[in-house]
Amino acid sequence: MPVSISHRPLMVLGCTSGAGKSLLVTALARCFARRGVDVVPYKAQNMSNNARVVAGGEIGVAQWLQARAAGVEPSVDMNPVLLKPEADTRSQVVVAGKVRHDLTETPWRERGPHLWPFMEASLFRLMDDHELVLIEGAGSPAEINLPDLVNNRVVEAADASAILVADIDRGGAFAHIYGTWSLVPEATRRRLAGYVLNRFRGDASLLAPGPEQLTAMTSLPLVGVVPMVAHHLPDEEGGTIRDVGPRDGLRVAVVRFPFGSNIDEFHLLPAAARVRWASEPADLDGVDLVILPGSKHVAADIEWLRRRGMADRIVSLADSGTRVLGICGGAMMLGDHIQDAGGIEGSARGLGLLPLTTDMVPDKLTSAVTLEVRGLPDPWSRLNGLVVKGYEIRHGHVTGETCQVAPALWVSGSVMATTVHGLFEDPSAVQALTGVRPEPVLESTFELLADLVEEHLDTALLEATIGL
């Protein structure tokens, strides 16, 4: 057990997946950081193909954002287990930032004893080293058919105080809260300090007497009613086009693969261009730029392109001079062959738009890198001179000397490929591609969310329950 902690950890549990746990932890992280508290996020296990590279490996983007909101350097301890879906019934298991092929092959119900020591060690390190740990739950703590490490065992191990969040916009919020309260283990129930109604629209006075009745039934006080809010945080599991770009702006289609990864990195692009997701050939009509994003399963996603007629359409557009850009897995698809002798993801024939060969290797590259853009001909020449801080996160080793213009950058005519993520998170790069410079949104969004907490939650109750 940790020797000492300054404040009792606070855990945000959800009645359902998507109740708003991640957003609330992000808001609380900035709220407490503004008060001078040394606060850090923690989520024992996340499931997402959107990840970020940090010291020691990779973590889910939600904890990376929460660390940014808290003003601390993100680390693998903040998300010790990351599950990355690569088929409908299979996920790659990342432990302490690194891929564990043995656990990926282990049946789900048998993984727990192997994962818990890493979850526990990371939690206790954070509790030892920081004043306050904000713990995010996963899914619901009341899934009584499943062994639960990431909610009930974590809240007990940390002896955390907890709040329960329900998405009232879905309907049935009072039932969700009461049902969850009644089904969780007693060790979790006695640590619940209150509940939050999230994503409320309308007149909050109309909620009465529901909150009072629920408190009478459960003894849980209402911590607050958080309104529906428009924000600009990247999507932690997928991608969302939130902004409406210039009406006469560049027309951009981002291909929406079934196993697309890191597609949250396009969150600035809709502010500078007219962006659409593309999953049918018709979605590519009239576009100026086609983007093939990252992929967690390149072979499966390129087969999907062919089945839907997307592959032929992309080749036709490239042949006619439309710009096509591939990033990481998308870059591999633009080449000739994806070879996988070790059975990591599977072999596949590429689109043949660039003379690239990809070899899948067991050891996954996770590295922060700086992409220095140079040597690009028209129509990409406006990118020359950019220095972009990004990251690489892939199993594929890409080679293609005849069209390589710089490290991790290949081009031939209107087709360009890079294995570096982060180009579209750099306002200068977005401007060079679209002609419009977007404003950075993360800091202003963190402040907006913290203001929301200050206005709508009982922060005095939260401070009391953690001993602040």
How would you describe this structure to a colleague?
- Helices cover 30% and strands 28% of the residues.
- By secondary structure, the protein is of the alpha/beta class.
- The chain has 2 domains: 10-232 and 445-466, 3-Layer(aba) Sandwich (Rossmann fold), CATH 3.40.50; 251-440, Class I glutamine amidotransferase (GATase) domain (Rossmann fold, 3-Layer(aba) Sandwich), CATH 3.40.50.
- The chain starts with 9 loop residues before the first strand and ends with a helix.
- 53% of the residues are buried.
- Mean pLDDT is 94; it is low at 1-5.
Low-pLDDT sequence parts: 1-5
Examine the coordinates and then state which fold CATH places here, giving the name of the CATH topology of the largest domain.
Rossmann fold
Tell me the total number of β-strands: 25
| Helix and strand composition category | alpha/beta
Please bin the fraction of helical residues: 25-40%
